[in-house]
Design goal:
23 strands; 12 helices; alpha/beta; about 25% strand; nine-stranded mixed beta sheet
Length: about 475
């Protein structure tokens, strides 16, 4: 019996599904975004007395009996060490990686370089719906990927893409971008949630079935999230975000989901005329350790992203407000956490900030999220307010509690060893972390503190 077609209404903005048309989406409250969506359904008649044949019953296998050969354990190296580290050691066969970022940030440039490197020994397909083959060739010439052996296609019909992958299986396939592909059986325009949902599901199944590593490029919304239904991020194995100022030199590749590696790993790149260049020592980029000039309000702290530790310069500027309500602005640091740190300084350390404008900046556009940098931000504010500079050989590490206590942080020894490479000798750390240290060097001075008041007194030489 022919299958009945199920109809529903799908929101183009958020992916919400309703059974009937509405003027306003009940989820995102946007008007006129619900569009008719049709997908194959099941038969209207089902006989409960009919049992399924044995070959249609789902097969369950004990996990210890599942065999994985050495070929499936092998990681495909992209030829870009920073990308391999973010992926957890390289590409896994059959994995699906979603990479998103602002326009012009370097997503396609990075994937062109990956395609060139892998195509030296393996077959690579590059499907693009945004550029012609001639445009791809011109960009490849500019970044030095013109000698690549990968195959380029402007196919956007997802069924034809799957057919090409299945008929002659490559090692890697790249789809740039998922918003330009379409499935002919879906009654909506390319880029709609329904098209993205169906196209991504079919591409994922083809990648898993043929053991093809698949890169999918995704556009982002003005809020910074990948456009389309949230299902897209759920079904893929890895989600990467390309961050950075489009006018600046440096780009940050961040992993927010990875089934085969550590989450929150960072890859640092420098955008040049010849493409993206790897930055092997991030501390040199994000910490101004070579400049001998010392300014009040600047402090260098060790930041940990994933398994990686590097030095970051945190800057604070405190000035008297010209208005009745002081401004609190932050670049690269959570504004809500900044407000909490200011409240702690006022209440627990008796630092008057109610009539001061406070600006926080993380050098070179890096976004710092971990709480171990709380103490560094607090002391940068105190330094700028008092005009007392924090020397380049001094750092502060610790998380602040609401009562003003300095809480312990993870991997304190690794942070200290990274800072020692740049001549840092004085470490102010949480007192509970002293028991974890196994450093015997006599060239450094480690001070344990329990409260924020102890840190401010040390800076201002108060007993």
């Amino acid at each position: 019996m022919a299958k009945k077609q199920n109809t529903a209404y799908l929101c183009d903005n958020c992916g919400e599904t309703t059974l009937s048309w509405m003027g306003k989406c009940p989820s995102c409250n946007n008007w006129n975004t619900l569009k008719l969506y049709t997908e194959p359904g099941s038969s209207t008649k089902t006989n409960k007395n009919i049992s399924l044949p044995n070959n249609q019953i789902s097969k369950l296998t004990k996990i210890k009996d599942i065999e994985v050969d050495s070929d499936n354990r092998y990681r495909i190296h992209t030829g870009i060490k920073e990308l391999d580290n973010v992926l957890g050691g390289g590409l896994v066969k059959g994995s699906v990686i979603l990479i998103g970022g602002e326009p012009g940030i370097g997503k396609s440039t990075l994937l062109l370089q990956v395609a060139k490197n892998i195509s030296k020994e393996n077959k690579v397909y590059y499907f693009t719906g945004e550029e012609s083959p001639q445009q791809i060739k011109l960009r490849a010439d500019r970044i030095g990927s013109n000698d690549g052996q990968f195959l380029v296609s402007t196919e956007i019909n997802v069924e034809n893409i799957v057919e090409a992958i299945s008929s002659d299986v490559p090692c890697l396939a790249i789809v740039d971008s998922i918003q330009t592909t379409y499935h002919p059986n879906t009654t909506s325009l390319a880029g709609s949630p329904a098209q993205i949902k169906n196209s991504s599901m079919i591409l994922m199944q083809a990648a898993k079935l043929n053991q093809v590593a698949l890169f999918i490029v995704g556009h982002i919304t003005k809020e910074g999230a990948i456009a389309g239904p949230k299902l897209l991020e759920h079904i893929v194995d890895c989600v990467l975000y390309f961050e950075g100022d489009g006018k600046g030199m440096y780009r940050i590749l961040r992993s927010v989901k990875n089934r085969y590696g550590t989450v929150d790993e960072l890859g640092i790149f420098e955008m040049s005329e010849s493409g993206l260049l790897e930055v092997n020592d991030a501390s040199i980029v994000f910490a101004n350790t070579k400049n001998s000039t010392v300014f009040a309000g600047s402090v260098i702290v060790p930041v940990m992203e994933g398994t990686r530790v590097f030095c970051v310069e945190q800057e604070a500027l405190v000035s008297s407000t010209s208005f009745g309500y002081p401004r609190r602005l932050s670049m690269g640091y959570d504004s809500n956490r900044l407000l909490m740190i200011i409240a702690i300084l006022e209440k627990r350390a008796r630092i008057a900030l109610s009539n001061q404008d406070i600006h926080i900046n993380i050098a070179h556009g890096l976004s710092v999220k971990e709480t171990a940098s709380d103490l560094g931000v607090a002391m940068a504010i105190v330094s700028s307010l008092t005009g007392i500079a924090i020397q380049k050989d001094t750092t502060y590490i610790g998380e602040l509690g609401l009562s003003g206590e300095i809480r312990r942080v993870r991997f304190i020894e690794r942070r200290i060893k990274e800072m020692m490479k740049f001549g840092v000798k004085n470490f102010i750390i949480p007192k509970p972390c002293l028991k974890e240290l196994n450093i015997t060097s006599k060239d450094i001075n480690i001070i344990g503190v329990n409260h924020i008041k102890e840190c401010t007194d040390l800076l201002t030489n108060k007993k």
